Amino acid sequence: MRDCGGMIERAPREVLRPASAREVASAVRAARTGVVARGHGHSAEGQSLTDGLVLDMRGLASVHEVGADRVTVDAGATWRQLLDTTLPYARTPPVLTDYLDLTIGGTLSAGGIGGASHVHGTQAANVLALDVVTPDGELVSCSASRRAGLFDSVRAGMGRHGIITRATLRLVPAPGRVLSCKAGYPSAAELIEAQRRVRADHVSGQAKANGYELKAVVYEGTRPPAGLDPSEVEELPYRDFADRMRPDVEALRSAGEWERPHPWATMLLPASRAAAFIEAALRATTPADLGLSGVVLIKRFSPGWVPMLRAPSDAVLFGLLRTASPGCRPAAEMAAANRRLHERARALGGVPYPAATTRAPGGPVRAI
């Protein structure tokens, strides 16, 4: 069995696909070896792998109750399924993943950073309540006012303190259409400052071959944000915008790049020190170091109150999403470069994203 990273393989002793939270609890109580809860296996460093018991959470995939300001959903459902259910009510989660085919429980366990995180924080910061199976197999409900310690431990906790089986999430009114604007900047510093300054509902950034690109999206907008001089403006339905990665993923699958190893390095940096770090890292990164379909992400955001994320209060996500393409650096060399990059990030107060996991024997570890 492999995950999205494609560099680590493990043969689990057993794979179970529970159909209820009680079955998850029973499996955890009976397990004699490590337990990993797995959604779509989108982890990059083997977090969704074990030689013990794998709980395939995709059997818990129902969306239960949609209200005006909240929705209750099983952990194995994807953000795509959730959005398809809430949009007929003109509601949406305030923060979506860029790629919708990830499970709810997986991204909540990682933290969940999206284009709207500069306004609403992480996905984990928008959770109202959780059902969790603890390491000793107890099925409990928790929230900010009920078993708050457990609630804080499992959000962005990567399964170290329990397996999420169901979540009640905040909803906000969904726009019908969005105005998506792109603008270029010559430096990472100017991109990061623009992400702070520009007033938009969704903000993201990438490093390109010829500079840095900001995407600023205004919901129900008719003109670009004030102070932005975009090179490209596109109006499109909100549903199409939310699912914007689908054509790219299909193209990567067709080219064979989706199945290649992905040595990804993603970290959260203090905003005050991020630009110099990013520019130095990119000067040392050649196209062969990144891969044919590699992407560099830069996103300034506010984490919200999620203690386990351990992110700076004003953070910049920096992601080198490498692909070990033919003719490029081998995956092992890319992974070694990532380790060196993480060491330098830690020295200036950065943290890995998602958080590193230390597995206790027999303890469950949630992975996406």
TrEMBL record:
TM annotation in the entry: none
Oxidoreductase recorded as keyword: yes
InterPro entries: Cytok_DH_C_sf, Cytokinin_DH_FAD/cytokin-bd, FAD-bd_PCMH, FAD-bd_PCMH-like_sf, FAD-bd_PCMH_sub1, FAD-bd_PCMH_sub2, FAD-linked_Oxase-like_C, FAD-linked_Oxidoreductases_BP
Keyword terms of this UniProt record: FAD, Flavoprotein, Oxidoreductase
Species per Swiss-Prot/TrEMBL record: Actinomadura fulvescens
Every FAD-binding PCMH-type domain range: 7-174
Domain of life, source organism: Bacteria
Protein name: FAD-binding PCMH-type domain-containing protein
UniProt xrefs under Pfam families: Cytokin-bind, FAD_binding_4
Swiss-Prot/TrEMBL cofactor(s): FAD
Similarity annotation: Belongs to the oxygen-dependent FAD-linked oxidoreductase family.
